[in-house]
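Moderator note: this is an archived Q&A kept for reference. The question asked for a predicted structure of one protein chain; the sequence and the answer are reproduced below.
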Amino acid sequence: MAAQVHILGDGLAACCAAHLLIDHGFSVSLHRTGRPKPARLLVSDATQSLLGDIFRIPDLFVHAPRIRRRIVRWGPHAETLDLPHRGLVVSESELLDRLWLCTPIAPINPASPAAWSLVAASDCAALPAFQSFGARQASVASVVLAPKAAQDACWVESLPDGWLFLLPAGGARGALIATGYASEKLPETLLDQSILVAPQIAQVEAAAPRAFPVFPQILSAVCDSDWLALGSAAMTFDPLCGEGAGHAARVALLASAVLQAVVKGQPRANLLDHYSTRLLQGFHRHLQACLPFYESGGSGPFWKNETAALKRGIAWARQRLRRCAPFQYRFSAYELEPIGPTAAR
């Protein structure tokens, strides 16, 4: 009988994990959560390639608008830089609708307990507490772009009280991410300070933007004997530096490989240690990538407080990593291959 896995969640991490596990003969059940989804995702070339490999859809992004320039004004008195960029813009809802269509979830006898649970919904009450580093919030608003705004560019700007990111969404529309401390007037306050982003916008939609935390977080434990957390249920990244779609796909790939290795008889405890350490390493790298941007973004309380929080997070992650054992597995064709002493068993 095929090993049974129950997945909680319906985002990109859940979809990738389900597809990979079904491909490898697992029986997968799914509980959708209906979480709010970002209006648009900026997807790098590497993530496009990875998703194309997982789902085997060669034309997955063929109609998506391309981003070829990143226009940046970062730091007090900074000059505006026009930099090359390679990526594309997709609607997360439309992308997931297409990916779930090629991920058939077969009915499973509810009396048959799942051997594993994959938790990809961050609001699951059974998860351990998050370790959080920062207090910044973001809101996403739909906007109408000004006639002069380039359709192949995105804009990033630091301001005294936060930062703005503007992404075209096609058809003279865009998505505006405003990041600072929680406020009902977060987008308006930052746009009033803006030199670069504000002139690209003709109108901000009247609908109240949705606010959500964007400070880095990671579960105090990302797995146990019969469950793994993945996606935003395991950790969350700052959208300034972390490409969420790529992170979700890579962690789903790792989770699938762990379950395949368990079924093949590899030591469960070693595999769970490997999973925990890989996620902790990724979180540590993300904090390190964010730090220079917050150190250079401004000199006010927002920038000083969030920089200090990132430094605390880096110190915390380094301390945890010192206690981690050396890796006993490596990736080979989307599977985990034992190395060192484990390989000799």
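Archived answer notes: The chain has two domains: 4-39+91-134+215-344, 137-213.
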